[in-house]
Amino acid sequence: MADPKAVGQGQTLHDGLINLEEFRAFASHLQSAFPDLELTIEDTVAEGDRVVVRWQLHMTHSDPFLRYAATQKRVNVSGITILRIANGKIVAGWDKWDQLGLLEQIGGGARAEPEARSSGLTRRSVAMRPVAG
């Protein structure tokens, strides 16, 4: 589904573009910490070489995530992903999702915010930058 040279932006602990392997490592860490992860696609819109997906994650914090021990708390997170497609493969992706909200739901709360900021987790918009190709 993804071109080996695909790049993405908007993931936890990354401030800028990431490659496919970095995305896979992040996704693996997320799935390990939340093994019952359920993804619900709420909307998709496609135009030209772009696909926009509005989604929800429902999951239980069963294993450590970042610096947070498992809490067994059920969490819900929403987000939007924009994908650029070329030759039938994903070549770029931009994610906007409530990463700080996830930390708050697993018990980070106000205590975690300074730590989250030092690790790059803040409520902020991710700017779309054109990717060559």
Which properties best describe this structure?
single chain; 133 residues; alpha+beta; Nuclear Transport Factor 2, Chain: A; 6-stranded mixed beta sheet; 3 helices; 6 strands; 23% helix; 41% strand; globular; disordered C terminus
Task: Explain briefly what this protein structure is.
This protein is α+β, with helices and mostly antiparallel strands and 133 residues long.
Structure description:
The protein has helices at residues 20-33, 99-105, 109-118; strands at 2-9, 17-19, 38-47, 50-60, 74-86, 89-97. The protein is α+β, with helices and mostly antiparallel strands. It has a single domain, classed as Nuclear Transport Factor 2, Chain: A (Roll), CATH 3.10.450. A six-stranded mixed sheet has the order 2-1-6-5-4-3. Helix 2 (99-105) packs antiparallel against helix 3. The two termini are 17 Å apart. The model is unreliable at 111-133 (pLDDT under 50).
Task: Please write out the topology.
Elements: E1 2-9, E2 17-19, H1 20-33, E3 38-47, E4 50-60, E5 74-86, E6 89-97, H2 99-105, H3 109-118
Parallel strand pairs: 1-6
Antiparallel strand pairs: 1-2, 3-4, 4-5, 5-6
Helix pairs in contact: 2-3
Segments where pLDDT lies below 50 for 5+ residues? 111-133
How large a portion of the residues is in β-strands, by DSSP E? 35-45%
Largest sheet: 6 strands, mixed
CATH class categorisation: Alpha Beta
Order of helices and strands: EEHEEEEHH
Strand arrangement, major sheet: 2-1-6-5-4-3
What is the fold-level CATH name, i.e. the topology?
Nuclear Transport Factor 2, Chain: A
Number of strands: 6
Roughly how many Å apart are the termini? 17 Å
Radius of gyration: 15 Å
- Helix percentage: 10-25%
What do the pLDDT scores average to? 83
CATH architecture assignment name: Roll
- What is the domain tally? 1
Number of continuous helical runs:
3
Outline: globular
Structural class: alpha+beta
